[in-house]
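Justification of resources, computational component.

The compute hours requested in this renewal are based largely on the per-chain cost of generating structure records like the one below. Each record pairs the submitted sequence with a full structure-token output. That output is archived, and it is also reused by downstream analysis tasks.
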Amino acid sequence: MPYTLPNLPYAFNALEPYIDEQTMKIHHGGHHAAYVKNLSTAVEKHPELASKPVEELLANIKSVPEEIRQAVINNGGGHLNHSMFWLMMTSPNSGGSGTLPSESEVAQAIKSTFGSFDTFRETFIKAASTRFGSGWAWLSLDNSGKLIVHSTANQDSPVLEGKKPILGLDVWEHAYYLKYQNRRPEYIDAWWHVVNWKQVNENFVKAQ
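The structure output for this chain reads:
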């Protein structure tokens, strides 16, 4: 297949107790793997597309043939979003999660944009909590290079809108239902304990 499922950078149980092992196995090996397979299938009849990174396909979605465009949006977005999502998390025992280093570039930008980390966190939680149905909450750079908090439906990627994602949270039920059932706010609160702020900062620096 032209697209492949990336390995997790940690064990399936590494994010416990905040995200459970069984959820990670199904989320990665089931849902993400399906997006990869379906994206590869979608571009089979268009080999000129299969050689392009998924980011490029999504950034130039209008150049994708209409017959497969929605499949690329759904599955290409699912592949890209999840590939970033795994890296944005790390073990709560790694020493690199939970607290945003105040001296980092992204911390300074968050303070400058939102006034404080607490205000940013509240804004992000609201975006994640109020996303109706399935989707994602994001911290992204917009077209002007400004940090914004927003959400997207389904597997739509911020790249489709010309934005550069810095931090993202999957709020599809498959991301949390085994452990948290319908308690999305509880899942959102728990997730902050496993955020990989080093990776988030790298995303920010690279996106500028």
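The first helix runs from residue 21 to 42. Strands lie at 135-141, 147-153, 164-170.
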